[in-house]
């Protein structure tokens, strides 16, 4: 089973890029972020014509996540549990059945910038950074709930987290950014500490591996990237892992997203 996570950065703007990629690589499951489309405007027919079932959780102009699957999707749910007032479309779940059932969680974690702190250095209530950290606490709770069910699952998408210094070309430039602040990375490690496996680092070590290059300041040409798109696997899912890699070449294509796909291969 080949699964890819891909922040497409606007499905309407990059529908040809998406369709060409699906035709070339034929993922069994694609987990998309930043579709920037309401559900009814998502170009689903173009995707369905390629043999995919499409489930979306959209929002006008911002955010939005989707699952594209060659397998039937069961028990689809939308929205991250824990805050009924959260209207941002950032989380979608469904179960796929290969050799065994696998719960897929697709996510677009909040960016968190600008970082707004009070005089005591704590995130300002109602600010974007406070929202990011609260969202991560809810994600941790969701992972705990799924672990308690003892079913294989994965949580994949744009985490907007640079886990380690080696995951940025210039880590010093990100010290005060919400993606790399110590508090952000600690929240990420708390999720991992539940017993999850960060798939890429389980297979590939060392610096120089990125999944995002900004459109500004020639970042791609200078390879000034960061790695912020991740697969976190439950113990049962990690046992199925064959490989995980980043499809770097997509960033150099015509009209690219600023992210590239990350691929996970499972024996399922």
Could you explain how this protein is built, in words?
- Helix 3 runs parallel beside helix 4 (182-192).
- A hairpin with a 7-residue loop joins strand 3 and strand 4 (65-69).
- The strands form 2 sheets. Strands 3-4-2-1-12-11 form a 6-stranded mixed β-sheet. Strands 5-6-7-8-10-9 form a 6-stranded mixed β-sheet.
- The protein has a single domain (2-266), classed as 4-Layer Sandwich (Deoxyribonuclease I, Chain A), CATH 3.60.10.10.
- It has 6 helices and 12 strands.
- The protein is globular.
- It has helices at 15-25, 44-48, 128-149, 182-192, 199-203, 235-238; strands at 2-7, 29-33, 53-57, 65-69, 73-78, 91-97, 101-108, 153-158, 197-198, 229-233, 241-246, 262-266.
- With 268 residues, the chain is of the alpha+beta class.
Summarize the structure.
The chain is an alpha+beta fold and 268 residues long.
